[in-house]
Amino acid sequence: MTVYLDHAATTPIHPVAAAAMTAQLGSVGNANSLHASGRAARRVVEESRETVARALGCRPGEVVFTSGGTEADNLALKGLYWSRRAADDRRRRILSTTIEHHAVLDPLHWLADEEGAQVELIGVDHLGRIDLAALKAAVEADPGSIALVSVMWANNEVGTVQPVTEVVEIAHTHGIPVHTDAVQAVGQVPVDFAASGVDAMTVTGHKIGGPYGVGALLVRREVQLTALLHGGGQERDVRSGTIDAPAIAGFASACEIAVKHQPELAVRLSALRDELVAGVMAAAPEASYNGDRVSDVGHRLPGNAHLTFPGCEGDSLLMLLDARGIECSTGSACNAGVPQPSHVLLAMGCDDEQARGSLRFSLGHTSTAADVEALLAAIGPVVERARAAGNGARGSAG
Amino acid sequence: MRVLAAMSGGVDSAVAAARAAEAGHDVTGIHLALSRNPKSYRTGARGCCTIEDSNDAGRAADVIGIPFYVWDMSERFHEDVVEDFLAEYAGGRTPNPCLRCNEKIKFAAVLERGLALGFDAVVTGHYAQLRTGSDGLIEMHRARDHGKDQSYVLGVLSQQQLAHSLFPLGDTAKPEIRREAERRGLQVADKPDSHDICFISDGDTGGWLSEKLGTDAPNSGGPIVDGASGEVLGEHAGSWRFTIGQRKGLRIGTPAPDGKPRFVLDIEPVSGTVTVGPREALAVTGLRCIRPLWCGAAPTAPLECSVQLRAHGEEHRAVVVPSATGFEVTLHDPASGIAPGQACVIYERTRVVGSGTIASTLR
Lengths: 398, 363
Fold this sequence. Notes:
Oligomer: heterodimer
Radius of gyration of chain A: 21 Å
Shape of chain A: globular
Largest interface: A-B, 24 and 26 residues
Strand content of chain B: 25-35%
Distance between the termini of chain A: 37 Å
Number of helices of chain B: 7
């Protein structure tokens, strides 16, 4: 029996979304064909677009379907940078944060290395919340040189919700567009595209109970993007490729369900999460709880629990829990399968040891009290054992 | 038993893990990440440290049906193996990093961590055989396939380490292992054997050492001297580019008076002087060894035995006499081209008695 506590990595598909997707898999029809089969596929895609728009607070025309979050982030960052720079060659600065997902950080580094972008990553406090004063200062230093601002809605590792409204206010004072990666936020906290004021927002299917390989970039109608993929211009002329009607149908269905159930899910998961954290801290009193401790959707993702276990390797903890059927994450990126200390924790002021000795438990729509109980029954001995093994995998002998 | 299978991504360790699982052990596969920058190491299927190798190991674990993780041993490997390798060459010696890795990493750091995490043993794809002797101690013997035998690089293991090791391939010949891998559906069945030194990506040890040791090292340059006449025959760019017994790459302009080829006889690490001379001058009749490591009880009296002085080298009949700092070896069969820094592994018939590091040779 598997205890799945890694919903932030991917969450099980909702049966209704799976049904919506499989219903389409058996139908022929390219949504761009002019005949009846094409029209039938197009109708599914456009109804899905309307569903997504309704769920997330945008207009249907503002939904650009993509292959998922990574593509949406790439399209937003590169597309906005190129188009803003084309309009005014001075716009080469991109402001973002030190705690973004690699789907944002890597394109930014690429733009800096290959496209003359000047990337400035604004720091965060010990809770993982962006330093708004630093952002404001960076903007006001020379607003005319900024191509865009990109700040994630909520952090994937420690679950800290970012003050997106304030970010938008600072940027829009100077007419600078804002992108946000809301991949972790949708379905967990209230997300409304129009109300937030952002100009572009990344969302993805498999984090909200939809299928893999599909997502969207929501882009305000007046915002110009330079295309990334050329070859037909199927999606608003900025994204090419035959439209994946079944995946889009599943994604839209999941989106609708996730947003509809978000308020009650947040209440249920917050309670479960608080129980999990309290139980782990009772079993391993030296552990520390990272991120924003305020258990409120304005501060922290309700499904996120991120803890550091001093003297333990996150690797060892993960392996020992895995052997007991409990699945979680060290929440860090890998370099050739080698876990690196999390850049998010380092940015929050943790040292290397703390960053390597951490685990992320993330709850989702299928999580139950029994999952938390199973973890709490195992965590004490696991931490003890991992501490005995110490950090022998690295560092000096002994 | 709960065992950790160290999986390099090659065919041997994959079959070893599969055999351990088939024998009923609860096996967890691990791949050791040894490079601090994995992308910089060897590409292609030559070494044991690339991303591709890690993926191959993971894929083999999937096929066997065991959990698989990557363990970051890069810091320990750098400190205990790479830095030692550099220091040895800087000191005019010729180290064997594979023994060092077995002694300090695979059967030390990995084993210690494994034991602490609740495992009972480490299983590897080394070709050697373990048996329990009449005294109850674990004995390590040469592999049945003498051509593939790797007991030499395991000669650094203690009784405690051997008691927590499994070498399931020791009774099988290599071609059979490849056939078995194929039968088991392991994709690495036809992957070439690894060779050379895993952390030197292009195989150019001299160039790598020059880059790391640089021009500041006292032996980064020096004369090449004729051992008999004392005549300076040329200059070199780093004494680490030479090993005792080496003949090629000396780049001496003037031929020897007798027209015979000249060999490296000696390397003086401080002055950087490299001494050359005829083949006869290479013959070694005795050795002084330090850092003794015994697989079982240490010998207390002179031991009639045989010794092996390099990986895949021949055996020499010898007498080993324990000393205060290690042991002295008198060779009944003279050896040639023996370099300080290499390991002297002692055998009684097929059994490994122990090993030491060659500190000096007697000619």
